[in-house]
Amino acid sequence: MKKNWNALAEAAGLAIPDIERIAPALDGLEDVFRPLARSIPHDLEPAVVFRPLPPDGDDPR
After folding, report:
1. What is the Cα–Cα distance from 60 to 55, expressed in whole angstroms?
2. Cα–Cα distance between 7 and 21 in angstroms, integer?
3. Side-chain half-sphere CA neighbours of 39 within 13 A
4. How far is it, in rounded angstroms, from Cα 53 to Cα 59?
């Protein structure tokens, strides 16, 4: 069953322009990655993102 990307975006409070145009690409990604995600062991730790500060200590955000 294909996801309703527009409804998901609305539920998340996102206004995504051209959602109907990009929905087929999102469906394609879902079709490719869903089987891969199922193959990940459940006891595997999730990836953690670590963004260290640059040497000068200034936060680039």
Report:
1. 11
2. 14
3. 5
4. 6
Neighbours of 27 (CB within 10 A): 13
Nearest alpha-carbon partner for 20 in 10, 34, 32, 31: 10
For the chain, what percent of residues have pLDDT higher than 70?
A: 92
Query: pLDDT value at position 45?
Result: 80
Q: For the chain, percent helix, then strand, then coil, each to nearest 5?
A: 45, 0, 55
All structural domains of the chain with their residue ranges: 5-38
Q: Which residue has the higher pLDDT, 39 or 58?
A: 39
DSSP secondary structure code for residue 4 in this structure: -
pLDDT tens per residue, range 26-35: 999 999 998 9
